[in-house]
Amino acid sequence: MAAPSVPVPRLEGVSPEQFMQRHYPQRKPLVLKGIDLGPCTSKWTVDYLSWAGGTREVKVHVATVAQMDFTSKNFVYRTLPFNKLVQRAAEERHKEFFISEDEKYYLRSLGEDPRKDVADIRKQFPLLEGDIRLPRFFQEEQFFSSVFRISSPGLQLWTHYDVMDNFLIQVMGRKRVVLFSPRDAQYLYLSGSKSEVLNIDSPDLAKYPLFSKARRYECCLEAGDVLFIPALWFHNVISEEFGVGVNIFWKHLPSECYDKTDTYGNKDPIAASRAAQILDRALRTLAELPEEYRDFYARRMVLHIQDRAYSKNFE
After folding, report:
1. Phi, psi (deg, nearest 5) at residue 288
2. How far apart are CA 182 and CA 49, in angstroms?
C-alpha cells in the first residue's frame, strides 16, 4: 500500500506578483486555479487538434503497458502524422496500431533539431500558439521552453525530476500527479534522475523497503488547472483520461549555471555535474584501500558532506 498523501494546496486567482512574493520562495508545489489560459481549454478538441496539427510527422512513445519505464525502455519510438496521433491517443482500442490494439501513446514535443533546439509551442505548433495564454510569472529572459504533450488514457510516466522550474498546464482531460520532495531522494531508488519504483501506488516493499519513508504530495488536475513544480521535485504523472497539456520551463538559477547543450531541461547544473565527477574520482581512490579502511573513510566522507552541504533551512 502507498503511504498517505499530503494534498498539494490549491489557490484561486493568484496574481503573478502574489505568486512571486508569497509562494515562489517557499519552493513547494502549488495548484493555481482561475488563471486566464485563453480559449484552449474549450477549443482543443480531438477534431480541432487534428486539423490544427495537420499531417506533420511527430516522434512518439508507444507502450503496451500503462507504466512507462525510461530506465528499462519498455516502450518503442515510432513516427506518426500528428492528426493520426491525436485520434489514436484518444482511443481505448485501435484498428490501426504498431504493437497491439490497446497500445498507448505519449508525445513530448521537440525542437526542430532536438540536439540544438528546445521545444517551443510557438514554433512547432503555430496554429495552436494563438489559442493559449502562457502564464508569465517570471522574467522573459528566464524562459527556457514550452513543451506540448499528449497522453493516452491510463498512461503513467516514470518518477523523475527536472532541473528547471515548471508550470504544468492541464488543457484537456484529467491527470493525477504524485510528487516527492528533493530531500526524500534517498528513498526513491534513483537511477540517474529517475526512480526505479514504477508502481508508486502499490510498491514492492520487499525490493524497495525505503520507499515507504518518502512523503507523497498529491493532486488531481482538471482542464484549466496549472501545477507549479519547483526544480528538483520528483513527479509522477498519471493520465486518467486522454490528456493534452503544456509545460513551461524557466530558469531558477542564472543562465551560466546550466549546461548550454541541454535542450530538455534535465541535465544537472554544471557545478553539480562537476562535483559528481570529482566524487567518482574520490571513490576510485578509496577503492585502493582494503575493505575495512574503505568502509571507514567512506563513512567519514558521508558525514563530511552532510555537515558541509546539507541544508538546515528546509523542512
Report:
1. -75, -15
2. 36
Instruction: Give tens-digit pLDDT for 51-62.
Output: 998 999 999 999
pLDDT at residue 95 is higher than 80? yes
What pTM was estimated for this model as a whole? 0.93
Q: Which residues contact 119 (CB under 8 A, 6 or more apart)?
A: 108, 109, 110, 111, 145, 146, 147, 148, 263
Residue 85 vs residues 44, 98, 109, 111, 283: alpha-carbon distances, Å: 14, 12, 12, 18, 47
List pLDDT tens digits, range 287-311.
Answer: 999 999 999 999 999 999 999 999 8
Provide the pairing of β-strand 5-7 with 216-221.
parallel
User: Which residue reads 562535483 in cell numbers?
Assistant: 275
How far is it, in rounded angstroms, from Cα 29 to Cα 26?
A: 9
Determine the length of the chain: 315
Looking at residue 44, what DSSP letter applies?
A: -
